[in-house]
Structures are given as structure tokens and as C-alpha cells.
Amino acid sequence: MSKDIRLKKGLNINLKGEADKVYASIPQSDLFSLKPTDFHGLTPKLTVKAGDKVKAGSCLFFDKYNDRVRFSSPVSGEVTDIVRGAKRRILEVKLKADAETKYESFSTLDAGASREQIIEGLLESGVWPFIRQKPFDIIANPIDTPKAIFISTFNTAPLAPDNDFVLHGLDSEFQTGVNFLKKLTDGVVHLNVDGNTNPSKVFTSCKGVQINKVSGMHPAGNVGVQIHHIDPINKGDVVWYLYPQDVLTIARLFSEGKYDVSRIVALTGPQVEKPRYYRTIAGATIKNLLDENTLIGDNNRFISGDVLTGEKIEKDGNIGFYDSQVTVIEEGNKQEFLGWIAPNLDKFSLSKSYFSWLTPSKKYSLNTNYNGEGRAYVVTGQYEKVLPMDIYPMQLIKACLIDDIDSMEQLGIYEISPEDVALCEFICTSKMEVQSIIRKGLDLIKKECS
Amino acid sequence: MKLFKNLLGSVKPHFEKGGKLEKLYPAYDAFETFLFVPDHTTHKGAHVRDAIDLKRTMFMVIIALVPCLLFGMWNVGYQYHLAIGETATLVENFVFGFWKFLPLIIVSYVVGLAVEFAFAIYRGHSVNEGYLVTGLLIPLTMPIDVPLWMLAISVIFAVVIGKEVFGGTGMNILNPALTARAFLFFAYPIYMSGDKVWVYNAMVDGHSGSTILGELAASTNWQSLSWNPFDMMTGIIPGSVGETSFIAIMIGAVILIASGIGSWRIILSTFVGGFVMATLFNMWGANELMSTPAEIHLIIGSFAFGAVFMATDPVTGSQTNKGKYIYGFLIGVFAILIRVFNPAYPEGMMLAILLMNIFAPLVDHYVIQGNIKRRLKRANA
After folding, report:
1. Cα distance from A421 to chain B (closest Cα, Å)?
2. Confidence of residue B223 (pLDDT cuts 50, 70, 90)
3. Cβ A377–B170 below 8 Å, yes or no?
4. What pLDDT digit, counting tens, does each position of A87-121 carry?
5. What residues of B are in contact with residue A304 (Cβ under 8 Å)?
6. Contacts 24+ apart (CB under 8 A), B55-58
7. Nearest CA of chain A to the CA of B315: how many Å?
8. Which pTM does this prediction carry?
9. Residue of A nearest to B46 (CA)
């Protein structure tokens, strides 16, 4: 029963710097890193030390509380450094890649493989972390059986890469990955395609899945929003999800026996002169991407991911484990004389208090300025305009602020992830840090319920 | 601009930690952020933020109030000259009203902001912008003749009891501007319910300064009033400074709704509620107020001003969208109900809004319970 979901609420932030649909070739990066901080709630246990030689697919660290969940090196080479933060927390495992990649060999599987074999194969190789779960937005627990698996084939976040372009021509590889995924659930694999456009036949011709059309503005592409409308999560339910490029990684693992996390990354943002797509490998430094490009100005912020949910990285930082987008925007660290009172035609706002609403298709180059200061909640009804769910966001956020577990459950905390409320955070007049509030609430619930 | 920057830069060290005036930092901060949008950048969560902030929001409400303010000033002069039987030009009327009304604005802002700053310094947090609007709403709802000391006391009462005791902007239960008016109404009733205060100097000169509602309550048929519906629409009638002109208020409503700052749900449902209640009373028709047509009810007194600028206060109103419909509708109903039945003072808007301020959380509670039940049902299905 495919579903056709049309969402009316949401907001597309029109940013300058969308990637042109061309691949630029660059010399492969030789500096990589795997960051335990990319995996929320993980306590890593190292299996390597600086100086060790590794292959692509060798385990670098594993989950202290679930040692079957391993994290592998994206390339072969040498561990150059273990970066630690406060309380000796591991922030990064840095690697220097060999000129030619040597792979660990894993057993290949065919379509007849059992669920256990597939799970074992994913865990052993380090591909497992690509499978994540709702609620809590963390790596899936291999002992659970999810009621459904969701794949969102499109991303509506600002300047997000276009999966139709990225996966073009990879029909059979994608289908292979999906076939393995189907074995992991007793329920349905939902493949959600973009209802605003004509989705690629990679997705529409995919077999053995339920194809749902979802149309609307951001966050229509968020898997959390799709789950809410297609097969909502109640207390006790577990749903797994992953993204199209992750499905390819699974397909390559089982057909070639290799841990191959090469992927296509979009370099985007108003500060990039030639935004475009690059073939690279998860965890590579962004230096190579930037060398090929001219940046506008030198007061920039580099983000692995999109401007709403991405992670701030340095100019020579590395692409996050789950990210296939790098965004460069200007830092907004300057004061603006009477900025709140001026007409300001070049400022983007959901409210119509700036005249930019007269030019709805205009593209903006936003910077990182807060555009104000944190305040008490004074304005109501804003969050509701950008959250296309039957959830009262403000009441839920207040419940999280006061650690009221009962109310959090009743108001729908299980269905929401920080990324779903990223737009609420963007538009908030009171400049609340909505994503971290929700994350804190989810952490509390997880702790109390386990 | 450079001048301001240098000036701020030169005094800043005194206000920072370790400086002589460290305790007064919130006051300094208020001035600095008033002049310059600060250079704070995002560090976690969304890297970009919407251009709107609370200052901009409040500023939009002030812009929406400008038509009422300008018209009100002119009307003060017009009503005065009418009462003393002199003719005056448009400019003369406006200038007269301007000079009579300006002290009210100054007293309201100076006294109110002084209290706000004092609390911000005492608590060590930044000054919230809420009073920018409250400070203008209070004089706009006052009679032009109100003594300045009385205004000052009601402002202090409104800010301290109406807002700060609850924790400041965003935490209050009652609309602060209406709290000021209610305080004046109960503490000095003659100034709010009397006949003689709505036109400048009426008390001294012995003119009749009664309002439309006053006359209707005194059993004058609405058709034999000295004002016709056109006067009521334009606002050439005695009354509180900002409340008389339905047209000016509607311009404000359009600005509030178009900019997305004011809730159209509340405004619409308040008018619907008032219309429904007044229509029911028309059918009954036991006295002059009851038999006044519903549409006339909506354009006289403080009904429209209350619906557009007071009921829409997001802090004290309902916060859920469904709740906003219910909240507004009930304000409309109670406003007409109180107007018709209150023997002491034929105006119900203030009390209706304050009453619904109290009930707004309850309305929201039931709306949210509905959502929770729906969610539970889904789980059991």
C-alpha cells in the first residue's frame, strides 16, 4: 500500500551555492579520520594505537557496551594520532592513507543468506553503524527486530545533494543492497521518494519495497517526518533507517567482500565559487575539495553536513561518517548598527517582518550570526509552522527542559529527533537551542527506559 | 555609527566583570544591543538563524500601533475643540493632541523601563523587549485626562505585579497593559468609568464627555446617539486615546497579520465570538445595550483594540492553534456579556481578556490532552 503524503508545513531555506550537477575529479586525499563523536552516545574502546598499520575494514574501535558493533578504517595506511579531549575522551582517530588501498577480505553473501549471516557480516566488517534506529537516533541494536526499515531517497535540507544524480545508473547495486535489508525486518522496507519531482528510476523501479511519495518543503525528506506519517512509532517500537549511499556500501560489502565507503560528496554553500560533486571516501579531509575551489573571503565556517544539523569542522577537517555534504558559509562575527530596525531586504526570515518575503525565490547567503539574543519564550505558534507532525513542539520542548518524562512520552518524544526540530531552532525568535534540548530529553528517556 | 561604537567601547570596561559598575552590566548591555545587533555567532545546533529577534517582533507591533497613535492624537484635539465650541484645523488638532499625549508616553516609558532595568540589574539578566510594546499600549488605553502620577502608579503596578513577580517577560499570566488599566479602574474608578474624563478638560469645563457605551448604558437608543456609524468607524468619538478608530485599528491588524506577528486566529475568533453573542442579545433585546446591532458593538468601545492588540499577546493567550480559536471566541462572548450586564461600567473587553488570560492554560491543557489521547489510541489500535 504505497502512500502519497503531502505536507503543507515546513520551510525551504533558499541558500546560494547549490552544487552543479557535475563531478569534479580530485587527487584522492591521504588524510583521514574516524570520529567517535559522530556516533551519539557511543563509548568507544580502541583496538589500535598510533603507529599501527591497518587495512580498509580493520577495526579501529568498538562499542564498549556492545562489542559486536565495530568501527572500521575507511582506508589502508597508518594510524598517525589519537586525538583526545577533556577526561581523555577520544575525539578522533587520525589516519594516513597508503598510495594504494589494501582491503580486509570479508565473506561475500548471496541473496539466499539468512538474517543472522547478514547481521554478522555487517557487524564484523564495520558497516553496521550505517544502520540507525528511531527512537533516539542512534546506531541500531543488532538484537532488536525492527517493525520496519525506512530509506529516505531524498534530502530537503538546504543545499543537500541530489540522490537522483548521485545514484544515477546504480540500479542493480541499489537493488542488491535493498534485498539484504529486506531480510532484517519482518515488516516492510519503505522507500520514500520525492513527490515534488520525478524521482530517478533507481528508486521507482526498486522491487520488494513499499514506495511512498512524500512531497512538501523541508523537513519532508527527513526520515523521522516520513515515519510519523507512514508508520508512527509508539512506545516500545523500533524502526531502522538508512540513506541511499549507505545501501550501496552494504551491496558492495556482500558482493565484493570489501569495506568500501567511497561516496559522493557535494561541496556547497554561498562562499564556494564552484559548488559541485566530488568522489571521495567517508572520513577524508576536505582540504582536497577546497584546493580545487576558490572560497569567497577568508572568514568562513566549514560544516560537515548541512547548515541546520551539520558539524563545525576546521578548514583541514574531515567529512563526518554519515555526511555526504560539506557547506561553507560566512562567519557572522560582526556587529550591525540598528540591524533589528532597518528594512533589510537581504535578510531571510520566515516571518514577514523583513521585506524579503516579497521575493520568495531569491537566494541568500546567510552567515552564522545569531541575529539576536536568547530570550524567554514570548512568541508562540512559530514552531508549529515548520514541523509537519501532529506534535506540539513547544510543549514537548518545555517538557524536555524540565525533565518531565511522562509528558515527554505523551507528547511524542519517541517520534522526534533533533534534525526534525532543526527548523524550529532556525526560526525561533527567542533563539532557543531546540536541537540540544530535544537531544537531552531523548538521552534522559533512553537512560530511564533501559 | 563609529561614534557610537567608540563611545560604547570606551565605557564598556566599567561594566564588565571587575569593573566599577559591574552590577549595572544589564543596563549597558541593553543600550549596546539596542544600537548594534551583537556579533554573537552560533556554536552548536543550526549554524544559521532566522533574521527575526524579539526586538524586531516588538518593533512590528509598535509600527502596527502607529495609525492608532496618530489618529488618537488628532482626535484628542478634535474632541477638545468640539467640546469648547471652537473650530481648529487638522494640524492644530493634531498638535494639541500631540502635546497632551506626549507626557503620557514619556511617563509610561520612563517609569516602566526604570522598573524593568531595576529588575534586570537585580536578577543579572538582560533586559527583555516586552515593555517596548506595553509602554505604548498603556497610555493608548488611558483617558487623555489621567493624572500623570496615577499613570505612573498603574505602570509600576503593571510591571511589578503583572509581570516581574512571575519571573518577567514571557512568564506572566496577565496581560501587563490591561493590568495597568484594571488597576486604575479599581483604584481610581472615577477616572475610568466616569463620564467626564474622556475629553480633555471636560471635568473642569463641565462639558459632557460621555462615551457611546456610557450613553447606551444610560438607556439612550443607539440611533438617537449624537454619533453615527461613520463616526464610530473612523473614530471621531470620545474614548481612550488609541481605541476609538476602528479603521486605524484594522490597519494595525493588517500589519500584525501580514507580518505574521499577531495571531489571525485570535483576532478572527474574537470578532466572531463578539458578533455571535451580540446577535443573541439582539434577539432578546431587553435594554438599549442588548438591542444595539452586533456590528455596532464590534466597532465601539475597546472591543476592536482589545481583539487586535491585547488578546493577541502570545504570552498570556492560548498557545496552541486550536486553543487560540477557543480563547478568542470566549473573549468575544464575555466582552459583550460583561458589557451588557455590568451595571458599574459598560465596557467588558478589559475584564473579558483578563478573565480568559486566566483560563488560557486550561484551554491549552484540554487541546493537548486531545493530542495525547489520539496518540494513545494509535498505540492501542
Report:
1. 10
2. confident
3. yes
4. 999 999 999 999 999 999 999 999 889 999 999 99
5. none
6. B55/A340, B55/A341, B55/A372, B55/B129, B55/B132, B56/A340, B56/A341, B56/A353, B56/A354, B56/A372, B57/A351, B57/A353, B57/A378, B57/A379, B57/A429, B57/B129, B57/B261, B58/B129, B58/B130, B58/B132, B58/B133
7. 5
8. 0.92
9. A308
